[in-house]
Structures are given as C-alpha cells and as structure tokens.
Design a protein that fits this description.
Blueprint (H helix, E strand, L loop, with lengths): L4 E7 L3 H14 L5 E8 L6 H7 L4 E5 L4 H12 L4 E5 L3 E3 L3 H11 L3 E10 L6 E3 L30 E2 L7 E5 H7 L11 H11 L3 E12 L10 H18 L2 H25 L4 H15 L14
Helix pairs in contact: 5-6, 6-7, 7-9, 8-9
Amino acid sequence: MMNIVSVITVNFNQPVVTEAMLDSIARTNTYESIEIIVVDNGSKTDPTPGWKIKYPKVVFIRSEENLGFAGGNNLGIKVAKGDYLFLVNNDTEFTAGLVEILAKTLDTHPEVGIVSPKIRYFDKPDMLQYAGFTNMNYYTARNNCIGQFETDKGQYDKNTGETGFIHGAAMMVRRAAIEKAGVMAENYFLYYEEMDWCERIKKAGFTIWVNMQALIYHKESVSVGSKSALKEYFMNRNRILFIRRNCSLKYRLVFWPYFIFVVTPRNILSYIKDKQWGFIAILFRSIWWNVVNGLDSANLGYELKK
C-alpha cells in the first residue's frame, strides 16, 4: 500500500509565489497518494477564500498572526494525514519524480527520519544551492553547505545517504520520527529550527539523509546575503540558542567565550565598516535574550511587523 505524503507549505504575503509552487506540483507530480496543505501565516490580506475556489483539492489553513517558520509548519503538521510529511518553502518549484524518489527513500530505509532533495537555484538552474551539509562544529556552531554556488555537473550525486543536516527549504520527514522527536521548536521563529529538529530526530534514533536523485528549484536569490535587522537578530540569537539546547557543558564552555570574544567583535567591526550602526544594539539584544530566557521561552525578544 502506498504511503500518504502530505505536502505542507507556508505563505506570508506572497500569494503569487505560492500559486506558482502549487501549479508546479500540478504540472509535475505523478505520486497518487498525496495531499497538499497551505498555511497562510498571518498575511496582511487573507488569500485563502480565493484559493479555496481556485484550488478546491488543497487544504488551506489561516493563522491570524505570523507564527514564524516552525509555527506555521507545525499548524500544517497538526492536520496532515500523511505517513510522510514534505515541508517545502512556498518559493520552490517541483520537478518530475521529486515526491516519488523521496517517499521511496523513506520506504526502503526505515532508519531514515528525514530527507532532503538536491536543491538548485531557480534563477540559475544549473547552480547548486544544496547537496548536503557537513557535520556541525559544536564548539563554534559552524558548518558548511556542500556544493553551494557550484555548477551542478553531477559531482555530488554520489552523496546520496547520510548528511549533517537537511535543508529547511525542502524536507520530507517520517511521521514516526515526529512522534518520537516532537514538532519543530517554535521559539526559534526564523533560522536554526530545522537544525535543532535534526538534532532531536537523531537523538530519537533516526538518520538524516540527502537524496541527490531528487531535485527541487528554490527561488531564493544567489545574492540573498543582504542584511536586515530581523535576520541579524535571529541568526545571532538562534545560533546561541541552538548550542544551549543541543550541546553538553564542555561545548558550551568553549562556545560562549568564542562567541563573545571572537564573533561579537568581528560582527561589530563589520557593522561599522558597512555603517550599519543599529545592528550593534541588535547583536547585544540577541546575546542578552539568551542570558535571561530559558530554552523554551516563548518570548521572541523582537517586535514583528507585517
């Protein structure tokens, strides 16, 4: 019997982008046992009434507030019927065989808890974004995305198998892994939540895979490196939180001095060079949040605006 796959995506003020993703599924998917769930994550204008008419077979959920990446996906997980749940960014486009290949990975490898496909950039379709991750250096909270910005000539296709982490833009997770590890931690809000999830899935006894035979395109720009206050705050705050939540004392005793005496001065110098003076206060706010808040605190420490 074919396992049900629930495709879950989250929309936030990007209805046209989300519709393009839904249309790409309709064009390419041949996996019969599939349901599609779209969570609108507090968009300024609610697109779901029109969507229900345009896409009658899709399940739509509306949240009146922005719950972040994890919170929006968790809403979808709660109503999903699938044995496997395929969480994808709304700015992705499916390719032929994508769902089948990932589902077969979980069918034939019961030890795999979560798997990502190969990811290429949509605007540069021959360029890799993701071919797996290296393992984490828990003393510094640093690792590398394999293959990023390289032309895909098949050089990483042999990487199919275990990898350090999945990619949050496209990840198919086994329901049994969620039942043991729990859903994603919502207090990350943005960044690092999928890495935290991988850590908990591994601790629950499963492995993390990439399947290089499956392909998805991601519309994130190659030049996405532009900084914003929101990104700076959550990237720094959550890097610390990740180590606090997942590492033993020996790692934390090295990480904290490294972050305070190496990362912080380096970031400050970068902000001064770029004349982004306001980011200095944001950096200290991200550190202070970790000093005064517990590991599961719901206080985001940042005012969110639509």
